[in-house]
């Protein structure tokens, strides 16, 4: 799906209940960990993904999407762009139709993954951060959303 506003796509994504976050790490200040923790604290059923980590924020971490005990409705990808395509392909194989590729000051967006996901019928958000759009966003993410929008670093349409 494309041609809808980023705000509409963000609202749709954040209305999901079960979300996996790919790219978490053992470093607690990591962007993926921050997203994972914020979603969990707001009542989402969250699942951390990283094949090299066993525990994240006190929770079991899974190596990949097929290892999860349930299928998530959406996946936030906070990895290097070259890993993003692999995750999007796994989403397609499992019937996961909502993908958010994180991009603010770091970049997880892979144009090949965006095109693959859209051809597979997924809603793909190629940029921004869910924390910029979540209800009760913190001041820092509100500012980041304004600044990145101003400089065209997050898309207006997906």
Give an overview of the whole structure.
- The protein has 158 residues and is α/β, with parallel strands linked by helices.
- The protein has one domain (6-150): Rossmann fold (3-Layer(aba) Sandwich), CATH 3.40.50.
- It is 37% helix and 16% strand.
- The strands form 2 sheets. A 5-stranded parallel β-sheet has the order 2-1-5-6-7, sandwiched between helices. A two-stranded antiparallel ribbon has the order 3-4.
- Helix 3 runs parallel beside helix 4.
- It is globular and about 40 Å long.
- The model has no long low-confidence stretch (mean pLDDT 91).
Which key phrases capture this entry?
158 residues; globular; Rossmann fold; alpha/beta; five-stranded parallel sheet; two-stranded antiparallel sheet
Proper CATH architecture: 3-Layer(aba) Sandwich
Main β-sheet description: 5 strands, parallel
Q: Structural class given helices, strands, pairing?
A: alpha/beta
Our count of helices gives 6
**How many separate domains make up the residues?**
1
**Order of strands in the sheet with the most strands?**
2-1-5-6-7
The portion of residues forming beta strands comes to 15-25%
Q: Give the distance, in angstroms, between the N- and C-terminal Cα atoms.
A: 8 Å
How would you state the average pLDDT, rounded? 91
């Amino acid at each position: 799906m494309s041609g809808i506003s980023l705000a509409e796509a963000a609202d749709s994504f954040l209305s999901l209940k079960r979300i996996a976050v790919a790219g978490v790490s053992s470093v607690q200040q990591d962007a993926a960990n921050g997203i994972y923790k914020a979603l969990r604290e707001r009542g989402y059923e969250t699942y951390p993904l990283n094949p090299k980590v066993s525990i994240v924020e006190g929770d079991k971490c899974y190596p990949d999407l097929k290892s999860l005990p349930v299928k998530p409705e959406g996946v936030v990808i906070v990895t290097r762009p070259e890993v993003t395509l692999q995750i999007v392909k796994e989403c397609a194989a499992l019937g996961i139709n909502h993908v958010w590729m994180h991009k603010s000051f770091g970049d997880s967006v892979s144009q090949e993954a965006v095109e693959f996901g859209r051809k597979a019928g997924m809603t793909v958000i190629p940029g921004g951060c869910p924390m910029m759009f979540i209800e009760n966003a913190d001041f820092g993410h509100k500012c980041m959303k304004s600044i990145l929008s101003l400089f065209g670093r997050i898309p207006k349409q997906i």
